Amino acid sequence: MYQTDPPRSPKDVLPTMYDLPSEDPEEPGLPDQFHLLQPRLLDETFRPQNYPSDEIFVASDLNLYYDPRHPLWHKRPDWFAVLGVSRLYEQQDLRLSYVVWQEGVDPFIVVELLSPSTEKEDLGQTLRDIKQPPGKWEVYEQILRVPYYAVFDRYKYKLRIFKLDGARYAEIALSESRFWIPELELGLGVWQGRYQDVEQPWLRWYDWTGCWVLTSTEQESQRAQQEKQRAERLIAQLRSLGVEPDVD
After folding, report:
1. Cis, bond preceding 6 (omega within 30 deg of 0)
2. pTM, to two decimals
3. Which of 159, 172, 163 shows the shortest CA–CA distance to 206?
4. Residue 209 CA: distances (Å) to CA of 21, 30, 47, 129, 201
5. Would you give the DSSP letter of residue 81?
6. What letter would DSSP give residue 143?
7. Could you tell me if 111 and 80 are in contact, meaning their C-beta atoms sit under 8 angstroms apart?
8. φ and ψ at 86, to 5 degrees?
9. 205 forms bridges with which residues in the sheet?
10. Cα separation, 65 vs 100, whole angstroms
11. Fewest C-beta atoms under 10 Å: which of 14, 25, 34, 200?
12. How does DSSP assign 25-92, residue by residue?
């Protein structure tokens, strides 16, 4: 792979999303239920107020290709968000993967869901074999320079937030398992509640008032409850005037 003078566009000389594999054949099995549901809740409640919805891309368990010198090297974050990029690849197609040199925009935040088999790599506690690709921590911190990196322990339900400070990640001390991200005008925190009929602590986004961002299902339920309350108030007002409403 050689560049010309002047250099040609990466689109001309490097593999595209369509050329790169979307799955890792050496990684057996599929995500468990928690790894399916938790990213879905993050998707549903991620609504930055300062970005239009068509300029926000979120993904989970999707190949993230990060090094044009080694175009097959990739990571597979449990969840990540990119801001200021089209929701669709070239504004027309659903993505098979996220290829940094094609998109030109790095992720703004990455979330990894800790489990015993991934904890050391997710927290940068493994030694790298020089012949092997770098681990997740090194990729997020040193190569992609992702501003915010969150890890959530699925067994202890503990949230840890790391923010890029100069060349390294610095851990943020959390007092209430919540962290406000001013660039997003959103906060990330641990919520105890029922999602998809499962009651447990979940990771989700909250707004500037401190309230949890509602999912579409919760919004519909809230609207239905408000309509019911309005109807009940109207019925009470009519009855106070001596009018028996026809509620059928």
Report:
1. yes
2. 0.83
3. 159
4. 42, 37, 14, 46, 20
5. E
6. I
7. yes
8. -60, 140
9. 188
10. 6
11. 25
12. TTS-S---HHHHHHHHHHHHH---TTS-GGGEEEESS--EE--TTSTT-EE--SEEEEESS-SSBTTT
Tens-binned pLDDT, residue by residue, of the chain (248 aa):
455 667 777 777 889 888 888 766 666 545 688 999 999 999 999 999 899 999 999 999 999 999 999 999 999 999 999 999 999 999 999 999 999 999 999 999 999 998 877 788 888 888 777 788 999 999 999 999 999 999 999 889 999 999 999 999 999 999 899 999 999 999 999 999 999 999 999 999 999 999 999 998 878 777 877 888 887 787 788 788 887 877 76
Closest CA to 193 of 175, 173, 214, 176: 214
Query: Sign (positive/negative) of CA torsion 202, 205, 211, 214?
Result: negative
Strands 74-75 and 64-65: antiparallel
Query: Residue 139, Cβ neighbours under 10 Å: how many?
Result: 21
Calpha distance 46→139 (Å, rounded) = 24
Rg (CA), the chain: 23
CA nearest 86: which of 128, 57, 46, 116? 57
How would you class 153 by CB atoms within 10 Å of its CB: exposed for 0-12, middle for 13-18, buried for 19 or more? Answer: middle
Name the token pair of 31. 């995500």
